[in-house]
Amino acid sequence: MKTILILSFLIVGLIIAFQIYLVMSANKTETQAYKILFSKENFEIRFYPSVTIASITSSAKSYKELANPGFRKLAGYIFGGNEGGKSISMTSPVHMDINDSASSMSFVMPANYNSDNLPKPNDKQVIIKTVPDEIVAAIKFGGYASDDEIELNKQRLIKALTENKIEFYGNFRFLGYNAPYQFINRRNEIIVNVNWEVNK
Predict the structure, then answer these.
(1) Do the beta carbons of residue 88 and residue 123 sit within 8 Å?
(2) pTM of this prediction?
(3) Domains in the chain, please, with CATH?
(4) Which of 94, 114, 116 shows the shortest CA–CA distance to 31?
(5) Do 63 and 146 touch, CB atoms closer than 8 A?
(6) How far is the C-alpha of 139 from the C-alpha of 41, rounded, in Å?
(7) pLDDT tens digits, one per residue of 116-146
(8) pLDDT, tens digit, for every residue of 141-152?
(9) Burial of residue 123 (number of CB atoms within 10 Å: 0-12, 13-18, 19+)
(10) What is the spatial distance between Cα 29 and Cα 75, in angstroms, rounded to a whole number?
């Protein structure tokens, strides 16, 4: 009985230590840069400068359908599935644009890379491109993402923007910041483009 109790404490201790390690590692991961232009209690307006991304398109129409296969393809590219077998550091967040026409998932490339110095993907479905500057509204939520949580927070963001008379356009996108095996301190966001004067 005592042995089982000691083993249980050891296992719990190892799980806690692993989760702390994951949180510390996430804090060291390069995160896509942005500037906060406006902040309220439940949302922010952000300016994102132009970045280079690796992206795949998919016929998936839900988070559940897109998440795992999309991640595997993009992870394959940065973990050596490219000309020269080069390893590229993972960044956060992962971008997902889920809609009824053509969904996509994208990894933002580290700041020292651009479309000229990135290796060519072995998988032709992985596309390298540069996206322009953009201004978006963002709302945060914790825990594990799901289609229901994404829709719930999309509606929260719509309500906040409507109440503040902020015009938005385009698809709502999901941003995920954490590895699936990180249980604590998880960060998710929904973003959408907005009409915003920079000097506002």
Answers:
(1) no
(2) 0.84
(3) 2-194 (3.20.80.10)
(4) 94
(5) yes
(6) 10
(7) 999 999 999 999 999 999 999 999 999 999 9
(8) 999 999 999 999
(9) middle
(10) 15
